[in-house]
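Troubleshooting: if your tokenizer reports a length mismatch, compare your output against this known-good record of 425 residues.
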Amino acid sequence: MLKNILPAFILKIIENSFYCVGYMLLVPLFILLIIFSICMRFFHKNNECIFIGLREICSNAIDSIAALRKKYEVISFFGFFLHTYQHDSRLYNIAKIPDFLSKSSTLKLIYTKTYLLCYFFYVSFKCDSFIYFWHDSFLPLNLDYFLFYLMKKKVIVWYCGSDIRYAPIHTELMKEFGFVSNYALNEKSSNIDFLKKFYRHKLAEKFCIMHATREKGTFLKKSAIFFRTPFKLPFLGKNKKTQLPVKVCHIPSDRINKNTNVVFEAVEILKKKKVYFEFIFEECIPNARVKCILENSDILIDYAGTIWGTLACEAMTFGCVVIGANEGHFEGLKSPPIVRFPLSAQRLADVLERLIQSNKLRQYLMAKSLAYAQDELSEERYLKRIVDAFAGKLEKNVQPLPEIKKLLLKHSENKFQYLIIKLLF
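Known-good structure output:
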């Protein structure tokens, strides 16, 4: 109705005024939250209740919940949205926006922010420790990191990649150490995005336990922790036998970052050479389907990089030979039995041909994969690491890149970024 009566610019003023009032109210609200947090500090107690949320990435959260519930009370909440290609949504605690609010973006925003604020108070009383996957948290600007710090709560921020990686600068950082990446091709590039990721680094390093790697953390200045979430071990106590024809799979979630073009070229080279194998390619599929493919495959081709991903780990639990990211020396980590993915179609074809032609080598690496998974990716190992991390006993095994400030200044895109790094890093 208003749209028919008032000019567009008047409506714009009303809308902007609404947001201005909202932002003005945030200041007294934040002051009240600080007072609340300081009061909570005096009621701090170790109640062994852990919160996990607010985003699911590669099944990390659901696998963590399953493992931690064997020893602790776990509260999980995943906001208002979950990717459809993840697990069954019934496994997660997801809030729904009432239908009568869904048509108004303003009312929807008010409802979701108020809901998250209420949930923040609830978990503040209930939980002593928190694990955030991705950068999402309850309050704007991740201010709950600071408030939980005041309350003497322990928070692990489990960063996953593009949430803290500023692609244009990071691509150049990796080149300095001899690595080629495709991040700049499909990740954001702007001063706003630069500020967001710089801010997330600084806040998490100051008030939380930061889970990250050199491959993810563009602005990593302090040491971080790194270990994998737990995996089910379907071949526990068993051996997986290789088969003929050899089954090779490639299951990307993102063709660019997973080097799918290189994989396709390598497969074509082998086909022309009449190398006999079965190639399985599917993309962006549910985890249940991924597991089915891995169970019946001999070799997984993952992606090129420094740090092995979730899919590579899951493939090892199924006893697959993995060709993928494995530069543990660069990250300062112990390397798993993963065959390095060379960023050349011909070299990848050579590696793949050797594995296909040698049953003995393939069977040896399959056994190594299973042994690594059972030792490093079990729920028991994960539980110990989480307990040690919250207690401050876990070694911070990821170090910043050498001369990182000098490199960031060198590869900053403009004077604004240069000034921010110069003054605040």
